[in-house]
Specification:
By secondary structure, the protein is mainly beta. The chain has three helices and 15 strands. Strand 10 and strand 11 form a beta hairpin. The longest helix is centred in the N-terminal third of the chain and has 10 residues.
Amino acid sequence: LCLMIALTTIGQSGLLTAAESIEDAMTATFRVTDKNTSGTAFLVRIDGGNSPEGRKLVLVTTAHGFQQFTGDGCWIILREKQKDDTYTRREHRLAMKDGDRLLWKKHPTEDIAVMPVELPAGIEVVPFRLEQLATAVDIAARRVRVAQEAWIPGYPAQLEANPAGWPVLRRGCIASHPLAPVTAVRTFLLNASSFGGDSGAP
């Protein structure tokens, strides 16, 4: 059983359609690895952060994925767009520790880890915006509901879609009911094929 992080995106007039958002979701999703095991992670942009542009990028994945990595760092498989519109693979090392201090945080009760990151220039990425994430209000209003289609970009069995490191896209649906209230319903099920390496997929 692989844990996928439920990331439901909300548009200005309701849920975004797959056609409007799926390519951005693919662009926000990356493989993370310690060269032995790997998982999936995605990036979320938080405006008003501490970067020069006033924005902070946060990497989101599963806590168990980070916990099983050995050493004090990991690699994120990035993609750099070339002038001819092709992409090349770019492996970027992320420090996970500063001495004995962890540079990432685990959610108090859920298997979710977050870590602020800075990426090198030239990387093709469209991070999710924090305000895109569905809230308890959205779920209570049934904007997220059972049988809704779900698109999942990830790295099943450490598989990459191509040498540049793009994720593999698969489809499922929300498979459990009810989803509200979120204070009582902390998780829900997706009906989708999953494999080791998918953990952390949005």
